[in-house]
Amino acid sequence: MKKTGEIARFIGGQLVGDDAIEIKGASGLKEAKKGDISFIIHEKFSPLLGMTKASCVVVPLTAKPCAKTVIRVADPSVSFSKAVDFIFPDRIPHPKGIHPTAVIEAKARIGANCGIGPYVVVRDGVSICDDTVIYPFCYIGKNARLGNSCIIYPGVTIREEVSLGNRVIIHPGAIIGGDGFGYDLAKGIFLKIPQIGTVVVEDDVEIGSNVTIDRARFSRTVIGAGTKIDNLVQVAHNVTIGRNCVVVAQSGISGSTKLGNGVMLGGQAGLVHHIELADGVKVGAQSGVLKSFLEKDTVLWGTPAKPIRLAKRLNASTALLPKLYARLNLLEKKIRALEKKK
User: Fold this and answer.
1) Taking the model in full, what pTM does it have?
2) 185 and 323: one domain?
């Protein structure tokens, strides 16, 4: 529980109203009750301030004056998130200490203040750095390295030799470092290609539930610092994803493809193998990218994906085909009628 004055100071906002209100919860404007803090993103939502029961609202600097206690900030969404972390630092009670059912092999190294839950398996050679939390039923393979302050939620598999940076979050069911999908066809039989590389996940990456990131055939599959991956994403072997990318649910990235920094993939986007996207490229939902795009900040859409202006023109032209077909039929009839008169 924190008071409004403390919250305003922590998030660097301008408090207008009572600085002694105790905040006990956080919620949206419509659901909020007395003792809650809430927020609005834009001043156009200011009329809602008179309707909410929230005791304090984080608002933009340009929000109109009202009778409610408010905290004025430059970015309400970001500031509200900071406020929630400040008010409720332990809202999710992470495991503490090492549970007696955890299996930790003799040559594993566990840092200070780590939490390892029930039925976790940690193999020889693993290094887990300070303040990292591993929830129940996770498997950490031989010689894997987990950095400081990581959170590994239940049912995650981190295979051998995989490396995680600091502050990495992995949600339930993800598999990091499974074998890449590689086979040679010899005399009608598929022979498995050994996948002897690894996966490197850099600092501040968040990986959603049931994501699969395959280990490289050789060298590394890399997820760059600050990248956020949604649920049910497939990242194939030897892929390189740059820094601060966003990959939305059900997207698939084929082997040896390279994404620059700040690339964004919409839901169910699909990328073929051995292509490259430049920094800042954005791919629309359900688009299929079949070749490289090396111009920065290009927006792509469609299958096969094209720069969005071209894709929209082609889409509009396709919608006109029924009318064009009807006109063509009419013209053919007129031509046949003229030919009969000759």
Assistant:
1) 0.90
2) no
